[in-house]
Amino acid sequence: AERASLAGVQHVVLVLSGKGGVGKSTLCSQLALALRGAGKRVGILDVDLCGPSIPRMLRAQDSAVHQCDSGWLPVLVGQDQPIALMSIGFLLERPDDAVVWRGPKKNALIKQFINDVAWGELDFLIVDTPPGTSDEHISTVEALRPFQLLGAVLVTTPQ
Fold first, then answer.
1. Mean pLDDT, the chain, as a whole number?
2. Which domain holds residue 98?
3. Does some domain include residue 4?
4. Would 18 be classed as within a structural domain?
C-alpha cells in the first residue's frame, strides 16, 4: 500500500540548500513549468512545513486538498496539463498561519505526504525542502528510499 502513492511517479528530484532565501521554491516552480512545457507530467511536493510558499507561487493558495479512496488528492494547477501540488499550505485555516511543531509531528506529516497522496501518473515529482540540513531532510530521504530518486539540485548563492 505504501508504494501505491508513488507507483506512477517515474523520477523524484529533491531541491535543497544549506540556507534560506536562495530561491529553492522559485527553482521548483520554474523547473515544474519548464518540464510541463516540454510535455512532461509534473508534481511538486512542498515539505517546507514552516514556510510553504509553493501554493502562493503558483496562485493556488485558496485551493483545498480532498480525500479519495487512495489518499489525499493533490491540488491541480493549470488547464491543459496541470501540475499536481501538495503542501501544508493547503491544510492551514489561513495561508499566513504559523506551523510550530516539534520534529516527530513534522516527520509524520512528511511521511504521510509521501505515502498517502494519490499522485497518479507523473514523469517528475519535484520535492521542495526547507532550508538547512534538519530532521525534515532525513525523514524525506528515508521515506523516498524505496522510490526512483533521480537526484538532487543544490541551490546556492555566491557568498
1. 86
2. 9-155
3. no
4. yes
Which is more confidently placed, 154 or 135?
Answer: 154
**Domain-located, residue 23:** yes
Q: What is the pLDDT of residues 122-146, one digit of tens each?
A: 999 999 998 887 778 888 888 888 7
The phi, psi pair for 107, rounded to 5°, reads -65, -40
CB-based burial, 125-141: b 16+ in 10 Å, e otherwise: bbbbbbbeeeebbebbe
**CATH number of the domain residue 68 falls in:** 3.40.50.300
Total domain count, the chain = 1
Alpha helices (H) in 14-145, listed in sequence order: 24-37, 54-57, 103-115, 135-144
User: Are the C-beta atoms of residues 88 and 6 closer than 8 Å to each other?
Assistant: no
Q: Return the pLDDT at 158.
A: 74
Torsion of CA 137, 141, 142, 143, to 10 degrees: 100
Q: Which three cell numbers stand for residue 49?
A: 512545513
**Is there a domain that residue 2 lies in?**
no
